[in-house]
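Morning. Coffee machine broken again, so started the prediction first thing and wrote up yesterday's gels while waiting. Chain of 249 residues, entered below exactly as on the submission form.
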Amino acid sequence: MPVNLSEFDDRFLASFVLGSPDYDAQLYAIRGLLRLHGQADEALSNEIKAIEAFAKQASGSANERAVDDWVDHLHQSVFQDAAHSMAAVGMLAPFVESLFKQAFPGIRDLLDRNGRAPAAHARWTMPKDKQWDCRRASPNRPHLVDGIVELAKATGLAADLPADLHKTLAALFGYRNKMFHLGFEWPDTERNAFERRIAADGWPQDWFAQATSDGKPWVFYLSDTFVQHCLTMLDQIFAGLGSFVRRND
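Came back before lunch.
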């Protein structure tokens, strides 16, 4: 018996091309850990404020010890923020990659099943085993972000996805690559290059925060604004996949 798609919302219909992974449970776990990290950041911030307040009213050796403690806590906060930022990008980036890596073969099967063909695109000249692999972009190069965007355009999925998808993914995976290859404290040349890229690629200034040293970039973080933007984007991708299924099944 044919499935009556009108009985289901777009979020549910996304599962028609995503297969068996429980992305809702994964996302719930990600949100939970992000929330715990936010609480830890708030607790440390409050502790720093309390030490600062005590230092202002203390005198003599008590003041000196309080100031030293305050400086130590500020230094600690730089690296706690970096650790939490790495955890965030370390969850969000693989989640996004997995989502699209699962979705596009599902879309291929959906189109085949319904006798629909994707639009003409340079990527269809790639080897057959690479054509639907979002980790490859035309003519046959490793590039996840371009691969996702190409397949979205070629299949028509792009109409159902956020308009700033490319910009968001470029920022997310660009930062992921820096953190996972260079750690928390990047070489000066890498810090300066990333700061220039933020401006050159037109990424909103509130997507990344940074600690500075002598007025120069020291440690970069995903901002809370960007993390929330990514979570919103994921909700939109799920809905977009469902909308695509509704239009093509």
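The beta strands are 136-137, 141-142, 208-213, 216-222. Going to sketch it on the whiteboard this afternoon.
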